[in-house]
């Protein structure tokens, strides 16, 4: 049985390229060496050849290449073929080789019988013929293996089971021996068995120390070397040493696919409504990345789209010029190790894999553990790269996914593929760096072939499709415009029929690669249409436009609309905005909060025992929120000044959190986690896990103060349940940051009871009105100097200080509101001054 998958280009093949005939003479440094009839050598990459319009394989040369074959013959293979006839009848209703006019038997007709009924009917038929053990469950298992692996899945594994060479030997001996064999193969050297033994002993002593690893006897070692040379010395695969012995492998033989959540930094995580996932397909042999996909957790990954990207990677669809980086190596999968339950459209994915000849298998526990380690390390390194780079233009979730996809593909090319990995040393030998790219180059040189992109309609039809009209400026998909000269006939046909809309055409596109789409205009085949321009996205994130760097929730910081000149104040619009946000008053409460806050922060950062906090209480409108905001800005300025000239990436000096009525402990902790540079947390994460993530983020981000407003809003639902306040108090002792709470006075909670008990862990400040004294006049004088009214006389507002005190009851917040409202009313009515009569008509 000979398979045509995957397509390959090998040594000795004759190809047509750039109008000339060439012969493939070798592979080196990720490219193909070509020789023309005159003996001239040239070097090209696989994308350069396959993307040219005249590339064609003219003749296959005589090369030694690995062709997958059935591992059995004789009676074992005949038994598998016997089962194939019955299984095909169960699936299709007709046995293999049936006449075109044949009709299915009644018990196997797919039109009237379900798959389970057909399996039960086949089991009853085999039992009637005397076949032992042919139950409906056995028929189902064989049918599933046949659909996944073909005839090979029906072969009795007990009859073809063989022991791999070296399966009883120490894996460390096999690893070192294969490394020496790889070096000899690379340098075209030949060595005796005794030379191999001396070299193996020397390297084992260098790595593990003298006498740590013992070699087998001389006769066993001699048989092992001869077996390796006989089985793997003719370019039928790359020998790989593992705990199960030495086995043969090749790039693409097993590709592991896994999906891992990305740990986005806070500046990017707040743009995503759902978790952002990263799906990676890694070649098991070379650890090269076959494809990478960034997507949201809103819906599962599309299975056919994953297969299309594996068979025709976007990195090879267009040659990147001037980047100085090599594209990811092209590795087409022979078998995929993944969980099909996590894919969308799994049946279409399985059918497409069977049509192409790709096996789909669930990874064994050992293979899964190995794949998870590799993918986990890759994603961790990529998360670290994201934390060190800025992306100013990202404003919404769509642009975030696009930027992450482009960043991931480029990062894999220039970082991961060049990252040394110890496990690849046996492939590249001791003379080269064990990187995925070097491992792929060593395998290509050893095997004598490389993969070619599948392309074609069979793979392109796996991409998502939409119906569109060809407009005069091209095709529009997802807010982007695609156009090329080949669409001219469709535009001409639409223009010749005025008043009649242009017919719809089918468009195939890759959501993870916006550089081109494929349009079918009626003729067989597809037209590749490149991207022309992207429409500007009008939607902007409200969080991305915030003016303050204080992280907050439920609070919008004041916008700095202070005019730069008196000319701007001549415009009523600007003057209204200016008076609506007069500078904050430095009240005694604000000054005391700033003084105590700075002292407690210094104390808690060096504290050994319990940490101290601050509690601010008072009636509504007493200035508690204003004091919190001023304290947060103070530490933002201090952190910016202390880290000037150095990177502030990932630092969150202050956090503002507002508790809503009915919030549970879990909700409050999740809201706090969103304000910090924490990895995306799963919805089902436990409260303890969320609290641990918040604790680590507060420590790593250098947070000085956590400002908790309306702390008494969440009441205790039952006597035995804890409140968010209890969780925050426990968290306050786990981090060096200082917690500052603010709430309405008079509500009995654990915080106020703690203060009343004299525990001393919370310094309690009560907001109180100011008496009519010098402090009150100073506040009024500050507002008087900041007014910008045309008829305003300096000092006129100070003369009304006693009136203002009577109207506001001595509360600074009410004073600021009254003066701001009166100033805006004076602008709107045209009086341009504040009088006592104007103050009487404004409600406070």
Protein described:
The chain is an alpha/beta fold and 844 residues long. It is built from 28 helices and 27 strands. Strands 17-20-21-22-19-18 form a 6-stranded antiparallel sheet. Helix 7 packs across helix 8, helix 21 runs parallel beside helix 22 (687-700) and helix 25 (774-786) runs parallel beside helix 27 (812-829). The longest helix has 23 residues, at 365-387. It is elongated and about 110 Å long.
Summarize, please.
It contains 28 helices and 27 strands.
Distinctive features:
single chain; 844 residues; alpha/beta; six-stranded antiparallel sheet; five-stranded antiparallel sheet; 27 strands; elongated
Radius of gyration: 37 Å
The number of E-state strands comes to 27
Q: In whole angstroms, how far apart are the ends?
A: 90 Å
Instruction: Please indicate the percent range of residues in DSSP E strands (runs of 2 or more).
Output: 15-25%
* Low-pLDDT segments, ≥5 res: 64-68, 319-325, 534-570, 754-760
Helix count, per DSSP?
28
Outline:
elongated
Largest sheet: 6 strands, antiparallel
Adjacency order of strands in the biggest sheet? 17-20-21-22-19-18
What structural class do the secondary elements suggest? alpha/beta
**Nearest-integer average pLDDT:** 76
Helix percent reads 25-40%
